[in-house]
């Protein structure tokens, strides 16, 4: 039975006061926030934390996507806004760094605590999340580099139904980027213009190299966290997405397709 922790902890009247003026709780949508873990599938104490950490990632990934889109727009404009794009990439880096710290919280989950509710999650898996792939499409992943079709299982059938296909989210984002540019395309445009050389461009380079690093190491951090929480089940049990492969082998598919999008900035 799902439990509503936020509403349980705070007195009821906190959620009932209504005024015509804009209030903090309406503006920030506090009621919705306190309801966010209500889809917990068990009464296990640790499950709401597990959900909250995933939500934390999705929340920040959404901001990263929004800010990457705007960074590309600033760089593709005429004239390009290099200084403000570099400042926005600084924000993107801080957001992504903050998101990744969620793994530190998740690592406090023991294997036993996770196993207590893992079964109730069915074939639900992070592989069904499209946000990380959308981020990569914005940065420079090509539509023909997508690997989701290589992984079988009912969870991936659900994923393809929701995000795959000609008119699905991933193909739509890939088409949109072909016309509006990726971070890679936008950066190359600026780098090719010698009139734009200078401190703003150098700052942009540093910020993009930093982001490329963070994106590259995300799967490594996730892999280490999953291995720590799952312990022997990392190799001994099949992946949560519902196929016959181990968690480790499912994760290796994404890792195999991970690469740096700005290799030359790390060599410099
Ligand atoms: C106890 C915590 C976690 C465990 C044990 C875990 C385990 C796994 C496993 C085994 C996979 C491979 C697919 C499968 O077999 O289902 C996977 C994929 C994935 N997970 Fe997690 N995960 C955890 C937390 C998270 C968190 C907090 C996020 C944040 C969004 C996340 C996002 C993802 C993503 C995006 C993928 C796909 C990776 C790729 O495309 O390369 N996971 N996870």
Any overview of this molecule?
With 268 residues, the chain is mainly alpha-helical. The chain has two domains: 1-38, no CATH class; 45-267, Methane Monooxygenase Hydroxylase, Chain G, domain 1 (Up-down Bundle), CATH 1.20.58.480. It is built from 15 helices and no strands. It has helices spanning 5-9, 24-27, 30-34, 47-76, 82-100, 102-106, 111-118, 131-139, 154-163, 169-180, 183-191, 199-230, 233-236, 247-256, 263-267. The longest helix has 32 residues, at 199-230. The termini are far apart. Residues 53-54, 57, 102, 106, 109, 114, 125-127, 129, 132, 219, 222, 226, 229-230, 239-241, 247, 250-251, 254 line the site of protoporphyrin IX containing FE (HEM). Protoporphyrin IX containing FE is lined by residues 53-54, 57, 102, 106, 109, 114, 125-127, 129, 132, 219, 222, 226, 229-230, 239-241, 247, 250-251, 254.
Which characteristics define this entry?
single chain, 268 residues, mainly alpha, Methane Monooxygenase Hydroxylase, Chain G, domain 1, 15 helices, globular, disordered N terminus, binds protoporphyrin IX containing FE
Number of helices: 15
Radius of gyration of CA atoms, rounded to a whole number? 21 Å
Q: Which kinds of small molecule does this entry bind, naming each only once?
A: protoporphyrin IX containing FE
The coarse overall form would be globular
Q: What is the overall pLDDT average?
A: 93
Give me the strand/helix succession: HHHHHHHHHHHHHHH
Structural class: mainly alpha
> How many domains is the backbone divided into?
2
- Portion of residues in beta strands equals under 5%
CATH topology of the largest domain: Methane Monooxygenase Hydroxylase, Chain G, domain 1
Quaternary = single chain
Total count of strands: 0
- The CATH architecture of the largest domain is Up-down Bundle
For the report, how would you describe the main beta sheet? none
Portion in helices: 55-70%
State the name of the first-level CATH class of the largest domain.
Answer: Mainly Alpha
Low-confidence stretches: 1-7
N→C terminal distance: 55 Å
């Amino acid at each position: 039975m799902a439990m509503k922790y936020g509403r349980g902890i705070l007195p009821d009247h906190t959620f009932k006061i209504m005024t015509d003026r804009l209030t903090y709780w309406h503006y920030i949508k506090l009621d919705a926030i306190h309801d966010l873990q209500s889809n917990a599938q068990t009464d296990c104490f640790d499950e709401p934390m597990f959900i909250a950490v995933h939500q934390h990632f999705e929340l920040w990934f959404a901001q990263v996507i929004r800010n990457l889109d705007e960074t590309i727009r600033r760089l593709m404009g005429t004239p390009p806004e290099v200084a403000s794009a570099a400042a926005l990439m600084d924000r993107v880096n801080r957001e992504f760094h903050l998101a990744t710290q969620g793994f530190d919280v998740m690592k406090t989950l023991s294997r036993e605590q996770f196993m207590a509710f893992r079964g109730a999650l069915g074939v639900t898996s992070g592989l069904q999340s499209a946000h990380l792939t959308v981020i990569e499409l914005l940065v420079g992943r090509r539509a023909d580099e997508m690997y989701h079709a290589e992984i079988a299982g009912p969870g991936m059938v659900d994923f393809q139904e929701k995000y795959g296909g000609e008119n699905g989210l991933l193909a739509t984002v890939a088409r949109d980027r072909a016309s509006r540019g990726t971070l890679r395309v936008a950066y190359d445009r600026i780098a090719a213009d010698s009139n734009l050389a200078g401190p703003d461009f150098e700052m942009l380079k540093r910020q993009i190299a930093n982001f490329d690093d963070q994106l590259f190491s995300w799967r490594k951090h996730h892999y280490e966290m999953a291995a720590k929480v799952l312990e022997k089940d990392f190799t001994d049990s099949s992946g949560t997405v519902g196929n016959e492969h181990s968690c480790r082998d499912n994760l290796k598919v994404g890792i195999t397709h991970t690469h740096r999008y700005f290799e030359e900035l790390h060599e410099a």
